[in-house]
Write a structure and sequence with these properties.
By secondary structure, this protein is an all-beta fold. About 0% of the residues lie in helices and about 35% in strands. The chain has no helices and 27 strands.
């Protein structure tokens, strides 16, 4: 079935072409209609819902037209129930009488019910305006283009005195606004700088996330701080979200200007109670009792703060709604179940080790020493901590929890390194991040963008340094499988074999599935000393080779492999050594 926002149907009849455009759906059907007044006759005709009954009948007796009283600024409104991008509005005018009554009417679209919705933008002077209706011929339907204006309410209003508004049909064509996500503030944890409690206990921070936009103090749904310097309110979303928008409902019955100048801040830090996070918006004003939307364009954060800079300020919020989606999953914490090690362990006065490395991967973010969940090295040159993830992962991020009760600056300057090498105890692997600082007791996230490695190290360069970590969480996904080891079961050959008295050194030793790396273990190959020695495995068929792992000898002569070439192809020319080069082994230090 064809789908789309715009369907073009072309009919051809003896050279005459008719083009029919069907743009989205009529979203007014099923909405709720209201108007400023209703002039009812003895049959009860003229009610607002007549204009969205799906019937373009345009004669009064057909019982399908609305009718207000003669009044100042008569209006009609449809509530679409949610925000739409409105592409066009069709209006059908009355035919049997009074078709000029519609002249000068304005079409207004928006999300506000200020002035019954008549305060929304009036689409015509600039691209944001839909139309001022100059005229609609008697009985005709006229289309007004609205260019995707966003709103839940569509109003038609006639400015002036002693006016009557009659509409025989209003059709609103649009598409649902792209989903900004759910209100992720509901059910979370709220806090604020202070609470001014009255005798009924009103004003607490959770009032702003109770799902109720009631905006009068006596309705018991607004927060209230004391008068103070830099009052703030915060919601902890419990995890990081991409925040698309924040809606704030202002108080109606008093003091609506208090919100002026407040800042919306979003991020993962609790530095300065979260008020140091990046700014989404500065609130210039919100009309009394109104709800205003602030666009945050996917800013990422666990904490959403509203703070008013300045002295002797009061912060009152009647509802805060945070719309967003969960941040793309960084994977599971793959450090749990890994093996931890560190450069040294600090001994207590009795010589008992305390601060063991596995404390940093115990799943506990407790950050006070007495809680027995932090690591501790001695004071030394270049102290380090490492977790072996047991296999290679793509590491997306690393969370580090710093100690709270003491010495939080010790972590400053530490490096996070990720890779597959144990050279220099793993401290020579590539750097994910250098830690400038982590506030006392805080957990900070460092983005590693899918760096690959089995080992994650945290190391502090310098002398007489101490490394303490209260938790390290490594979020990542398993590296994509390179396939099976297709050398097993292949046929091995080499240029020559140096056999000792036990017959060791044959070519098949290299594909026996055993990484034993000492000669006496009888699992290593050996050629004679010769020109251009080679080893080859015949895989029996053609494969796409993703990677080759080579284990080097440990007990002797590990530099012999240096300069060797790995060649892969389908030719046996020069014993297969003429095939394309996969890689040149520059050096091979240690055991791999």
């Amino acid at each position: 079935m064809m789908t789309g926002d715009l369907i073009l149907v072309l009919f051809v009849f003896t050279g005459e072409i008719c083009l029919i455009s069907m743009e989205s759906e009529n979203v007014a059907r099923g909405g709720q209609a209201a108007q400023s007044s209703t002039r009812l006759d003895h049959l009860g005709r003229g009610t607002p819902e007549r204009a969205i009954d799906g019937n373009r009948a345009n004669v009064w007796s057909q019982n399908s037209c609305t009718h207000t009283n003669g009044e100042t600024k008569p209006w009609w409104r449809v509530d679409l129930q949610k925000t739409y991008k409105v592409n066009s509005v069709n209006i059908t005018n009355r035919k049997d009488c009074c078709h000029t009554r519609i002249n000068g009417a304005e079409i207004r679209i928006g999300n506000s019910l200020n002035d019954n919705g008549n305060g929304n933008p009036t689409y015509v002077l600039i691209q944001q305006l839909c139309a001022v209706i100059d005229s609609i011929p008697a009985g005709n339907t006229k289309t007004f283009t609205c260019n995707g204006m966003e709103g839940q309410f569509v109003n038609i209003v006639i400015p002036g005195e002693n006016e009557i508004l009659t509409l025989c049909e209003v059709e609103v064509f649009g598409t649902k606004k792209e989903d900004n996500g759910e209100n992720v503030a509901r059910g979370r944890q709220a806090a604020q700088s202070s609470t001014r409690l009255d005798h009924l206990g009103r004003g607490t921070p959770e009032r702003a996330i109770d799902g109720n936009r009631a905006n009068v103090w006596s309705q018991n749904s607004c927060t209230h701080t004391n008068g103070e310097t830099k009052p703030w309110w915060r919601v902890d979303l419990q995890k990081t979200y991409k925040v698309n928008s924040v809606k704030i409902t202002n108080r109606q019955d008093c003091c609506h200007t208090r919100i002026n100048g407040a800042e919306i801040r979003i991020g993962n830090s609790l530095n300065d109670n979260g008020n140091g996070n990046p700014t989404c918006a500065v609130i210039d004003s919100i009309p009394a009792g109104n709800t205003k939307t602030f666009t945050c364009n996917g800013m990422e954060g666990q904490f959403v703060n509203i703070v008013i800079p300045g002295e002797n300020e009061i912060l009152t919020l009647c509802e805060v709604e945070v719309f967003g989606t969960k941040k793309e999953d960084d994977g599971e914490n793959v450090a749990r179940g890994g093996q931890a090690a560190q450069s040294s362990i600090r001994l207590d006065n009795l010589g008992t080790p305390e601060g063991a490395p596995e404390r940093a991967i115990d799943g506990n973010r407790a950050n006070v020493w007495s809680q027995n969940s932090c690591t501790h090295t001695n004071g030394e040159t270049k102290p380090w901590w490492r977790v072996d993830l047991q296999k290679t992962y793509k590491v997306n991020s690393v969370n580090i929890t710093n100690r709270k009760d003491c010495c939080h600056t010790r972590i400053n300057g530490a490096e996070i390194r990720i890779g597959n090498s144990l050279n220099d105890n793993g401290n020579g692997n590539p750097t994910c991040a250098v830690i400038d600082s982590i506030p006392a007791g805080n957990t900070k996230t460092f983005t590693c963008n899918g760096m690959e490695g089995q080992f994650v190290n945290i190391v502090i360069p310098g002398e007489n340094e101490i490394l303490t970590l209260c938790e390290v969480e490594v979020f990542g996904t398993k590296k994509e499988d390179d396939g099976e080891n297709v050398a097993r079961g292949g046929q091995a050959a080499q240029s020559s074999t140096r056999l000792d008295h036990l017959g060791r050194g044959t070519p098949e030793r290299a594909i026996d599935g055993n990484r034993a790396n000492v000669w006496s273990q009888n699992s290593c190959t050996h050629t004679n000393g010769e020109t251009k020695p080679w080893w080859r495995v015949d895989l029996q068929k053609t494969y796409k080779v993703n990677s080759v792992n080579i284990t080097n000898r440990k007990d002797c002569c590990h530099t012999r492999i240096n300069g060797a070439e790995i060649r892969i192809g389908n030719s046996l020319n020069d014993n297969g050594n003429g095939n394309p080069t996969y890689v040149l082994i520059a050096c091979f230090a240690g055991i791999h």
